[in-house]
Hints:
Structural class: alpha/beta
Number of helices: 9
CATH class of the largest domain: Alpha Beta
Strand order of the largest sheet: 2-1-3-10-4
Oligomer: single chain
Low-confidence stretches: 8-21
Amino acid sequence: MMRTVTKLGIFMIAALRLCAPAAAADRLTLTSSNPTALEMDQMVARDRGFFARENIDLDVTYMTPDLVIKALLAGTVDLARSGTHFGVIAAARGGELKIVGGSNYGYPYQVISQPQFKSLADLKGQKIAGATLASITTTIFKDVMARQGVPPTAYTLLFVGGSPERFQAVSSGQVAASLAEAPPFNFRSIDAGRKVLLNYSDEIKNLQYTAYFASNKSLAQNRPLLTRFMRAMGQAMR
């Protein structure tokens, strides 16, 4: 009889454990620039269950590249995925933030133009879509053009936002070219017959292009959670 009661008790305890609600995942807020294929690491971490394994509920807010680090420093998010140069510039100006992990290495962007343009020199007098004045894509483009004898006064840069906005600007005919289109937008432009005038990877060989940043305050408050996040990202990148 005692053995039967014991077995029944064990069964009831196991049943209660199975029926008990699962602990809520820890919410982590992240800001990033417009979604592209360069966010493959996050996609893999979510789809393969690496975030779930670390009990993380990742809430991503997308915004234009120049606002990502600003949102982090304003305290509206826990973490930011940004072009490394944006975070470094902010830190050099006194911003209290740290790199907590790397994302994309290398620079898979291209300058893509309407079909009638055959070289960068052909862009004289034309309107060109860019991200922001501070973007590394803008800096490299202006440097390459200057080395080819084309000064900044010979063309007009329109800063329209991230890859989706730049793709739309060139697709609609608003501009002659787009400074930098990331996958999959560059592939879509090439499929549409537009021309690649510059591979950024030919100009800059070694670059930690994007990184994950946390403010000093977020690090102090969320270090264990951020550690779990980067552990999930490390699994995804493998």
